[in-house]
Amino acid sequence: MLNVEMTARLADLARQIRFVFFSTDLVFDGRTGQYDETAEVNPLSVYGETKAQAEEIVLRNPAHTVIRTSLNGGASPSGDRGFNEELRRAWRAGHSVNLFTDEFRCPIPALVTARAVWQLLEHNHTGLYHVAGTERLSRWQIGQLLAQRWPQLSPLFVPVSRLTYTGPPRPADTSLTCTKAQQLLSFRLPGLTEWLRANPHEVF
Fold it and tell me: Which of 16, 36, 121, 145 is most exposed, with minimal Cβ within 10 Å?
């Protein structure tokens, strides 16, 4: 599996230098939410499982860093990488989107994630850190926020339960607690609602 095998290869190549691995809140099963770095991982998906295995490999080297994050949004070169871009593309095409009312995460602008990671590395902080938004939101709530940002697209979305999903099990609440990283940063990690209001002209 690439998440494990390639990470192991890269971590080995970088054994004498700084190495950063980006992981995910999906290493948790979502039963409790508000997970901190000491919480036990229990992924429900192959993706989460391979990320958890890769974390272990990276953290064997005390000079390396693992960043667990949540949904990252922003403007990507291809225009289809962020969760916000997926919604915008669907709405621009006139499609209605089903959004879960009972699946919670902590979305964060990719710009904020990059700034936080840069500061952690600049001050040589290694180990495991959670870097995510400070606001716990359902997919439905996220859709409502982004619909307000793009009224010209006449957004269409339907509230549904994650229990109606026919694929692999989806964790209910993988919200992250970021106190450990926050104590080391010179700025406060924002919630998505706050950031959108403060940056009305930022592409998102």
Answer: 16
Residue 93 lies inside a defined structural domain of this protein? yes
Sequence-distant (≥ 6) Cβ neighbours of residue 15 within 8 angstroms: 61
Nearest to 21 by CA among 41, 7, 42: 7
> Per-residue pLDDT tens for 19-71?
999 999 999 999 999 999 999 999 999 999 999 999 999 999 999 999 999 99
Closest CA to 155 of 142, 164, 146, 167: 146
Q: Which CATH number do you get for residue 170?
A: 3.40.50.720
Q: How many residues does the chain have?
A: 204
Is residue 25 a part of any domain in this protein?
A: yes
Asked if residue 204 belongs to a domain, the reply is no
> In the prediction, which pLDDT does 5 show?
94
How many angstroms separate the first and last alpha carbons of the chain?
Answer: 32
Residue type, 19: F
> Rounded to the nearest 5°, which phi and psi values hold at 200?
-65, -20
Q: Largest Cα–Cα distance of the chain, in whole Å?
A: 52
Q: What is the band of 106 on the pLDDT scale with cuts at 50, 70, 90?
A: very high
Smallest Cα–Cα separation from 106: which of 148, 137, 67?
Answer: 137
Q: What is residue 179's predicted lDDT score, i.e. its pLDDT?
A: 98
